[in-house]
Amino acid sequence: FSHDEAKRVYEAHLEGHEGRVGVINYRDNGEVVSITHTGTEYRLQGRGIAGELTTFAMDDLREKGRKVRPICPYTVRWFRENTDYDDILAD
Prior knowledge:
Layout: E1 2-4, E2 9-13, E3 20-28, E4 32-40, H1 49-63, E5 67-70, H2 73-81
Parallel strand pairs: 4-5
Antiparallel strand pairs: 1-2, 2-3, 3-4
């Protein structure tokens, strides 16, 4: 997993696959990070890549002391299923 702050994207890479296989796009307004899109390459969906990438991103944002506003439906559902991350949800 990687984070490109300049492009405002978290990416998942998988050995044996060229390029990224998963992505999280976000907007950063300085106070809150809004997750706008989470996606996995179609042929690799169902393998847990989006969940692992989201966990990586939320751990990174938590470590940086950031708050998160989930906009993308996947991330909204992820937060519902991972209530131990409620501390980073924006009001």
